[in-house]
Amino acid sequence: MTDVPLQSEGGGVPDRGASQSFHSPAATADDDVNDTNDSLVYQAWTQSGFPIVDGKYIDNGALRDADPDEAVVSGPPALDLYWHNRSLGPEPGLFRGVAAAGFVNVTEYIVRLGSFLAETKGACKIRALNTTLYSVNVIVTTNLSQAEMMQYLQKHGLAPAW
Question: Region Disordered: start and end of each range (predicted)?
């Protein structure tokens, strides 16, 4: 990483310009969620929580260049999704949990959650639901297997949410 002073040549704050963005895969032909959008864009963040703009980020008051090979995570406006099963027992193969990213707004995610619950017909019950503008945490009780639960989550666009 290269340290760059916070002031630009003119003595002011550097021009931040447009965000460095990363494109997610396009929707599949049978996925009607993204009919009008062939790719999704999200803001890249460093692992330590700094947004990357024009290949640079501010860390402890210094503007640093982001290493092109540096691991990044999606951040706002992408959703951080977390599902966890509270009814874990000794049975092997039960759904334990999943962490994923979402590229829809939180309202759309909640609508999809309702569709998911209607289809599972009581096989999965929500025990806690916490949503913010950029995060959804779902705590459930279920005896569904990891494979069954993932099939439902993917079918309803819940993990990952495209």
Answer: 1-34
| pLDDT single digits (tens) 102-126 | 888 899 999 999 999 999 999 999 9
For residue 127, give both structure tokens: 């025990």
Q: What percent of the chain has pLDDT over 70?
A: 70
Angle between helices 106-120 and 146-155 (to 10 degrees): 130
Smallest CA-to-CA distance from 82 within 96, 70, 68, 64 is with 96
AA identity, residue 120: T
**Contacting residues for 129 by C-beta, under 8 A, at least 6 apart:** 113, 136, 137, 138, 139
Q: If pLDDT is split at 50, 70 and 90, which confidence band does 22 have?
A: very low
Q: Classify each residue of 11-22 as buried b or exposed e, where b means 16 or more C-beta atoms within 10 Å of its C-beta.
A: eeebeeeeebee
- Its pTM stands at 0.58
CA dist 81 and 156 (Å) reads 14
- Please tell me the distance from the alpha carbon of residue 96 to that of residue 88, in angstroms, as a whole number: 7
Residues 51 and 73: beta-carbon distance below 8 Å: no
Q: What is the pLDDT of residues 126-137, one digit of tens each?
A: 999 999 988 899
The residue written with tokens 């982001």 in the block is 66
